[in-house]
Amino acid sequence: MAQQKKVAKKQVSVRKSVEQPISPAADVSKTPSRYINRDESWLLFNRRVLEEADDATNPLLERLKFLAITASNLDEFLEIRVAGILQQMEEDLGLPQKPDEGGLTSDARMDRLRDWLHRFATDQDQCWTERLAPALEAANIHLVKWKDMTEEDRLFAARFFHDQVDPLLTPVTLDPSHPFPRVLNKALCLALLLRHKRKNRVGVRSPKVLGVITIPRSLPDLVVLPERDGQRNYLLLDELIEAHSERMFRGYEVLGRAAFRVTRNSNLYMQEEEARSVLESVAAELHNRRKGDVVRMEIDATAADVIAERLRINFELEEWQVFRTQAPVNINRLMNLYKEIKTSDFKFPEFHGRRLQLGPKARDVFDELRKRDILLHHPYDSYNTVEAFIAAGTNDPRVISMKQTLYRTSADSSMFRALTEAAQSKDVTVVVELMARFDEASNIRWARELEDAGVQVFHGIYGLKTHCKLALLWRRDPDGVVRSYAHLGTGNYNPVTARFYTDISLLTARPELTEAMQRVFRYLTANWEASHETYRPLLVAPVTLADDMLALIAREEAHARKGHKAHIIAKMNALLDTKTIEALYSASQAGVEIDLIVRGMCALRPGVPGLSERIRVRSIIGRFLEHSRIFWFANGGHEEVYAGSADWMPRNLYERCEVVFPIVDENGKHRLRKEILETYLKDDVKARLMQPDGTYIRATGSGKRISAQDWFMEHATASDSGENRQEASDLPTALPAATEASPKRARS
């Protein structure tokens, strides 16, 4: 492949030492970069997830789940970010390379990432082989090897192979008439080193050749063996196929065998001028995704060198792109072990969020919303409330029209069913984002089915992902007045992920919000041009959001310079936008106290004297995926608080349609600040504090320790009505600032 040959010019040893991170005590304002590299920041985030797999205080199968998540995360990082860097290196070959925000060229970034990736893969291996696998054995949960199985289990597995596996397999022997098969992205395969048993006419043995078996994705990853004497035994499917591989290559001697898997470039590229429609263009590009260049090959650590080398040459990979693993190839499939074991002994206790209690005089949710806004914190407040709101639009004959955005949804989504049913009697408009990464195929299917049901389906503005979370209903109320009712959220309309993503929902009938939402829908369906003030009080990307956020930060800076109360608390998934970071640096230098709760990537350097000494950054990794985006501004004592779909990343601020909405209701503002944000800031169990060099250390505390997620669950369980909430001020005192924490560095 041309890409790999060109990249070869920059090849270095896998174990080449990387530039050491800057010491926490260093004055980063004097270093070449004011920012943390985004890719290394992401790898540190995935390492924090791996730490949860290593944390013995988590239930055993939950630890296994965290390990599987790190593998899934790493797949996406390689097929998008690393693939993108390799592409950039190919395009820049022979030309001056433009440094990124961190001052690194594509070559320099790749040099550093090679070592990071291999070290992380080694740590994943050790987590499995040294800690999780022995712990599973001790709990009588066994991933058995064929050679160690009883004769009874072998007979059971052999019958399964004969009945359900063998008919689907297509073994290929590589020779001039049988070229190397097209290996799909992330498909598990077996490679076999073969030699024909017959000698040629002069008595010379034939040369060694490769055989390949691609394991169909329709087959289960695990074979569940009969439970005996409390022993739960499971056989990986590739182990079963390996055990029967010789009969698939009759006439050949099997000299060696190994499982392998390749990860391909999965970026989608569309040519706007050639696209008949966005839907047709995305559908076509999904086929191209299967054909992307190989970025990584995982192979069993026991594979013979000749097998690994022949595969490497076939896929035109550099040596560093081959990852030998002592854990099962594709650790992500261990998630199936988590799903197969139904017992709760080794899992987090089951949790159900509290249901909404309507007021005593409210006949339905619409009555309630005419009296007050409803703020929900998922999953601690049940997502059933949002589902019921959309279902009410379908079932209530007074509702005459519905509009909604869909970014990701589940295979059996109640939202999808409600919208298709509503279209039989109401006007229903849905804006479907086709290019929600890795959900494109399902979204295309939903879009077509919605159209068939009579829903007006739009795909937003070409070139901008529709990432906002909006639902708007029009209802002719009993008094004859047509009113609008709305849901605005930070999370996807997906009841499945809503059980383990933390998000904020606002249900409201405020005319100023619903009328602004109507204008946003016109923007999405008609590319409606309007002034910045048109969408107020909503902050809408890419029209107003970036400037609005910078203005809110600048206002806090102005308050600080006047000696007024100035404080920012912002919670998000990622912080990468350099304009926003520079605004935060400036505000910090002016005296604004800034607390950032950033789950994943963070390019800002906190706690640097003279630059960001009043900025503290924490990341919380726990049972639930922190997904809510909340932005609180002290505003000199007249606080303002917002929530929405956007992170502080360039793609959210400039390349997507996002909506950030104000929380106007005083009870909602009070809850977000005093209960939710304060609790996150006092977490000293699952929180890590970011250091100036980009590494993280565990938060420490004294006395009663607080896990924010555990506290929210306990609080939700204890309160059905949501009234008389305990506030975070009743919790132990806040933690010291990150820059005051122990200088001990996070493990990297």
TrEMBL record:
Needed co-factor(s): Mg(2+)
A matching Pfam family: PP_kinase_C
Every Polyphosphate kinase C-terminal domain range: 364-527, 538-701
UniProt PTM comment: An intermediate of this reaction is the autophosphorylated ppk in which a phosphate is covalently linked to a histidine residue through a N-P bond.
Keywords: ATP-binding, Kinase, Magnesium, Metal-binding, Nucleotide-binding, Phosphoprotein, Transferase
Function in brief: Catalyzes the reversible transfer of the terminal phosphate of ATP to form a long-chain polyphosphate (polyP).
Descriptive protein name: Polyphosphate kinase
Organism: Granulicella mallensis (strain ATCC BAA-1857 / DSM 23137 / MP5ACTX8)
